[in-house]
# Entry
Amino acid sequence: MEKAKENILIKRIKAGEFDLFDHIVKRYQNGLYNFILNIVKNTDDAMDLCQETFLKAYRSISSYKGKASFSTWLYRIGYNNAINYFKKHKRISSMEIEKLNLKCQNNEYEKVEKNEIKKVINKIVEDLDTKYRTPIFLFFIENKSYKEIAEIMKIPINSVKSNIFRGKNIIKQVLQKNKKIVV
Amino acid sequence: MQEEKLDELIKAHFKKTCVKIDISQGIMKEIERYEYKKLLIKNSFRFIVIFFTVAASISSIVLIELLFKYHSYYLTLYNINIIIIKISLEGFFVLAVVSIITLAFKFKRLGLFRIQFR
# Structure
């Protein structure tokens, strides 16, 4: 959906044509769901949070001024929802680099066979801390710019860059430490 | 490991874990429910405000009538109690006017002057 078309759509929704919000939901539901799922790592909770995000977005659509793109604004709501969910359930991922490195030292990943590099990647990315995984997801899958990611996560652009770099570095380090699967 | 290859692997991981869903129907139903509730609250609020505005207007008109009727009488008497009543009546009138103006602005801001047919 082009940005101009989307802006017209949002204007019409603001004017009271709430049926048109369906287009917005259909456009962003998959991306937003996967984005939230990457943070909460639970399909049911991700579904609930995704629905809640759309409803919140609808209720506060009048406050959307168009400074950032609509998707950035929507993802920001989704991100806040996911973070609040974590705070509520006290399930903040404590998976820090040290923990990941510890796993690496314990050769947990070495159990995986040489040709199963994808499985290792999956495991490492899943274990990666949210602060690294979220910007990596937004950068690689949602094709968001550093600026947009910074707006979604409300952190400085340089932090986004360094988090992506560090996240990738962790994956790289873990892969390299595992001699069997180093390419 | 090459940077490009690592990027490809990360992308492949995320793409593999991406799931397709369809929640639009459920969300639209929720939105319809929300809109209905909003309209109901808006209409109830509108009714209450109109009712009180009309009541305030009528009572202030009646009070002004009374004020004018007994104004000269009050002044000749110089009774302190009556002066207090007079001041309070005038104060009530001023308050009524101010509240009507405030409500009118509030109406405008809430978009209640727009007629809705749903």
About this structure: Chain B has a mean pLDDT of 73.
